[in-house]
Amino acid sequence: MMKYDNDGLHENKKNQQLDHFRVDDTGKKLTTNQGLKVSEDEHSLKAGDRGPTLMEDFHFREKLTHFDHERIPERVVHARGFAAHGVFELYESMTPYTKAKFLQDPAVKTPVFVRFSTVAGSRGSGDTVRDVRGFSTKFYTEEGNYDLVGNNIPIFFIQDAIKFPDLVHSIKPEPHNEIPQAATAHDTFWDFVANNTESAHMVMWHMSDRAIPRSFRMMEGFGVHTFRFVNEEGRAHFVKFHWKPVLGIHSLVWDEAQKIAGKDPDFHRRDLWEAIEMGDYPEFEFGVQIIREEDEFMFDFDILDPTKIWPEEIVPVKIIGKMTLNRNVDNVFAETEQVAFHPGHVVPGIDFTNDPLLQGRLFSYTDTQLIRLGGPNFHELPINKAVCPIHNNQRDGYSRMAINKGPVSYHKNSMAHNDPSPATAEEGGYVHYEEKVEGRKVQRRSDSFKDHYSQAKLFWNSMSEVEKHHILQAFRFEVGKVKSPDIRQQVVDMFANVDSELARQIAIGVGANPPEGSTTESNVTETSPALSQMNTVKTAQTRKVALLVDNGFNADELNLILTALKEAGVHGEVISRHLGMIQSADGKNLQVDATFLTTDSVVYDAVYVAGGTESSASLSMLKEAKDFIADSYHHYKTIGAANEGVELLTAAGISTAEQTGAGVVIARTEEEVGSLSKEFIHAIAQHRHWARQV
């Protein structure tokens, strides 16, 4: 008897129908979606090796268009984000370099909207995954919106935008099983890396602590690409943009990041929201690196290569202003989700270069907004609307808000006296920088982009021993998750070109063969101290401390600590067995903020154990309290305890006699408690105590 499914179709017939749509690409030649065989898929069509990308490259445009429209409704990349409003203030006029009005007058305050994000995961993924972080800023200037669309890492994986879909496809969950979410620890990503060696430098950053920031408030931002400043005289300078966090650059440790993803997947967004609500407004200083046009070719790297930094020791960062985030959004969907950034949203005085990754982004972002926000009028959404008037001949389309009067919607015209008419440069009209361009139409990359390993080695050389250990462990974790022995070996062989000892240590951890004999290891010996987070600002301000307390605590001692923390700008939260009130040994009540069940040590920067015989005895018998202390210790955080509170440290397996200088601060007498608070706050400012690691 024939078997039918619920649709009334024979099972075999249904499978035959599906077979018509199944495609096997094995052994086939690459084609466009129209069936045209493609001869080149590495390089977009350019006017000369270092020239701009040409719009006639139909394969490039088709590939990017398809990629931009692959997901609805969330962003294909940077889907999980959080944002805030703020203000930008200039320190000094940049008139010698640019005519951009918001960079002219230090008295002018420019409104901004900033969106932070992860790249690889969906909207439902965790905040603390190992990933690049987006750092995009919309300046609402009197000349129109300017978007600085950047990341927390100053470079990128690829050199040409035509490879962006390939990169992201390799990072995303593998299509046959949709695993893993928001992670690069899988075969397709590392297969891409091993076969696209231009990614070497970025992978070093990605394996570093920069990929697991402590907070959006404690990470750098970069424009990534090389742009141009153009002044009133038409003179141009090459420029790179930087955001420097006033609180310094700090990261999580990997075990901590993984645990936070389970305990509080909203950790970064909660941190930003709460900081602004408490008045701890995040601040970032704005810096620029500037190179004269005549000096374009004086470096041993191509300044247009998006996989290269300009080392700060060679091209210093000039700090020119500060951004303060001082207001949370009112509605995440209306603002954070509907904000539309685009590196092509510029103002007079800021222009582009022939960086081939930037050139592709200038096409891709508008194309993406069309599918995400339902048509060409996304600029009329409140969060995207410019603060200056809008006048043009564009009409209609999905979600049109403006009600334009009159019959004219074209240029040139006589019926409306040619209004709106183009503005001259003197009237503020945008004039593209006149750059000489010549060369054959080619699908190649400049030879000056071929060095893939020197700056990866510079980054490695610049790391402290602690940071190098973290990078090695990241490689071992990520590549150790790769199923294919061949891909693991390719990765080891690739990074032998960066540092042979690094490659050997990776090989040991992932079961691959170490490099043998002579290698082509980079011979770079220089360092760049600016690349190491060990050289960052250290402050205890805005840090969070868990105070472990139970009935019978010493109220005078705890009040002394709480007062000192508040004066230092540190936030203390009381953690106990249950919510409500607990009582001190002398009968004073204290409100509990969280319990051992509702919070965890990983969401705090430090922990303090209050004294008191009854309190200490109770906590020392509680497994959750001992685990709280042990986790903090193993994540290298500051731990403080006074008098009887020291007993909990001992119960958690911490030998207090061996912790001098390792971030464990104790007071065993009433006289020592007075100096403990100052030492405790100083220790918190160090962020972590790496002496425990070695």
UniProtKB/TrEMBL annotation:
The record's listing under SMART domains reads: Catalase
What are its GO cellular component terms? cytosol
Top-level taxon of origin: Bacteria
Q: Which residues bind heme?
A: 75, 115, 164, 361, 365, 372
Q: So where's the catalytic machinery, residue-wise?
A: 78, 151
Boundaries of each Catalase core domain copy?
Answer: 31-419
Kindly give the Pfam families that the UniProt entry links to this protein: Catalase, Catalase-rel, Catalase_C
Keywords, alphabetical: Heme, Hydrogen peroxide, Iron, Metal-binding, Oxidoreductase, Peroxidase
Q: Which PROSITE patterns match?
A: CATALASE_1 (PS00437), CATALASE_2 (PS00438), CATALASE_3 (PS51402)
Per UniProt, location of the 3'-histidyl-3-tyrosine (His-Tyr) cross-link in this chain: 342-365
Query: Transmembrane region positions?
Result: none
Record-stated family? Belongs to the catalase family. HPII subfamily.
Instruction: Return the EC number.
Output: 1.11.1.6
- The protein in question is named Catalase
UniProt region (Disordered), positions on chain: 1-26, 511-531
Q: What does this protein do?
A: Decomposes hydrogen peroxide into water and oxygen; serves to protect cells from the toxic effects of hydrogen peroxide.
Instruction: Write out the biased-composition intervals (Polar residues).
Output: 516-531
Q: Which SUPFAM superfamilies match?
A: Class I glutamine amidotransferase-like, Heme-dependent catalase-like
Please list the GO terms describing molecular function: catalase activity; heme binding; metal ion binding
Q: Which Gene3D superfamilies match?
A: 1.20.1370.20, 3.40.50.880, Catalase core domain
Biological process terms from the Gene Ontology for this record are: hydrogen peroxide catabolic process; response to oxidative stress
Q: Which cofactor does it need?
A: heme
Q: Is Metal-binding a UniProt keyword of this protein?
A: yes
Q: Which InterPro entries match?
A: Catalase, Catalase_AS, Catalase_clade2, Catalase_clade2_helical, Catalase_core, Catalase_haem_BS, Catalase_immune_responsive, Catalase_large_C
Catalytic activity entry: 2 H2O2 = O2 + 2 H2O
Give the organism, scientific name.
Answer: Lederbergia citrea
